[in-house]
Every structure is written in C-alpha cells, then in structure tokens.
Predict the structure.
Amino acid sequence: MERPAAGGLCRPRRIPGALDGNPELSGLDRRAALAGLGVAALWRPAFAAAPGLTLSGRFQQGGFAMGRTAPRAQIFVDDVAEGLASQAGYFVVGFDRDAGPEARIRVVTEDGEATHVAVIAPGDFNIQRIDGLPEDQVAPQDEALLARIAAEVERKSKGFASLADLDDFRQGFITPVKTYRLSARFGGQRILNGEPKKPHYGDDLAAPVGTPIRAPAGGVVSFAETGLHFDGGLTLIDHGQGLITCYLHQSRIDVAVGDTVRRGQVIGAVGKEGRATGPHLCWRMKWHGRNLDPMLMVGAKQP
C-alpha cells in the first residue's frame, strides 16, 4: 500500500487487469486479483430449480385434476390461492359444471413455481323432467319451513367448509353402491313440475331401500344428519383439501361427524327420504364450492 497523503485515504495497489475487464485474465487469476483488493467473495444471486408438476385427471366440465409437486407447495387456480399440497406432494383441483374453457394451475414454493394451463372440454348435459312432486319440495312458501331450510343450509355449509389435511383422493374412487341403475346423470338441467330449476349436481344411483352405501375413498365425516327437508338422510365426507362427497336420501346413517372412514366401509343405506320419487342414492361431489361429477373420479389414477 502507498502511504496516504495528508488528510487522504489509503489507495489500494492496482493489479493489472483486475479492474479493467482484461479478457485474457482467467477466473482463478481474477479471483486472486479480487482477493488482492481485500474482496473475499463475489456475491451472485442463486436461482433454484422450479418445483415439478405432474397432472392426471378428467379435463372437462365437472371433472378434476390430481397433481403431484413439492410437498406443501402452494396451489393456485386462475391466480386464486386454493391451499397446500399434502406432505407427500399430492393435490386435487376441481372444474365446475359451468367451468370456462381453460384453467391455469400454478404451484409455488420458496424455490420457484410451475404452471400448467389446462384446456377444459365442454360437458354433455341433458334435460331432466320430473313431475308430480309435492309443491313444498319445489317452491316452498311456508315461513316456518323456509326458516327450517335456511337453518339446514347453514349447518351443511360448515360441513362443506371442511379442509382435512389428507390426500385420500389420490387412489381414485369406487362406486358407493355395488349394484345400481343410473337413473339421472350429473349436470342435467332440472325441470320440476314444469318449472326450470338449477342443474342436477349429482349422479342418481337407483337401488332398493336398505342397500348398503360404501365410502368410495377414505376420509373424515364432516356432516351427518337425518330428516333434512330436501336431502333426507345426508352424509358428507372430506377426502382431503376440501374434496367433499355427498350422500343424499339415506334411510339410515351409520357414521357420525369426526369419524374417520376407510375405502369400502359401509356408511349408511339407500332410501327415498327428502325430495325423491323413488329409492336411490344421489351421489354428489364438491371442491371449494365447485360442483363436480363424482362418477368421473371412479377408477382415477394418481399422477
């Protein structure tokens, strides 16, 4: 080092090529030159690899996608946060009965993110006409009955809000009734007593009263009540991350809220309670408020 001038600072000894970008200076020489300036290391930003993203499923209205990515990655659908992947990295996404033509699925971790834009095929929905229903099952007017229905909706909403930290959906589903006749398909436009109503958000599996109903996959019971005005006996099962299956019109319920159920376990029996013209199980599925076709999940394979 040169001695400082009076009132001045020490000036570092200049190493040829160290500061003037000499292209002939090797990396090792350059590091040595920088060390000669008292620089211990040259900071560079680190760019980590993006998380992996693998998807399988039924990419159509009422369908779903099962994904695998980094454990506990954040899941976004169309830029809306929809929770976290499981500890094993699995997650599920649902496409509503009225979903648009595309869905942007994005997974985010501290290391990066990955995105897939899914093309959603239109569903094939029919028109379903049902006549001869009691008027209070189509357009109830009695104030006491309306208050009862509102209270039932409030209780059910808590069951639909369940977000169990599970990934029991990843092995796919079996049908909840072994032998049945599909008497009404998911998504059909309902016309009740000649009055247009909401689409039918379930698959009707016609079977005799008392036919056992099986859990199609493992999960936790988030709602179980009998005697509901429209639904009769109703059970809800959370299979993980808000994927909820619903079992309507049951004559008997064999489980209670908080119970853990395994795939194939009997949870109740087919009935004709509530708004029903004959014995059947109305099997429904929801994911974060979206209405899905549960039959599309039967036999699904994890990614």
Observations:
- Residues 1-48 have pLDDT under 50 and may be disordered.
- The domain at 132-297 is CATH 2.70.70.10 (Glucose Permease (Domain IIA)).
- The longest helix spans residues 143-160.
- The longest strand covers residues 219-228.
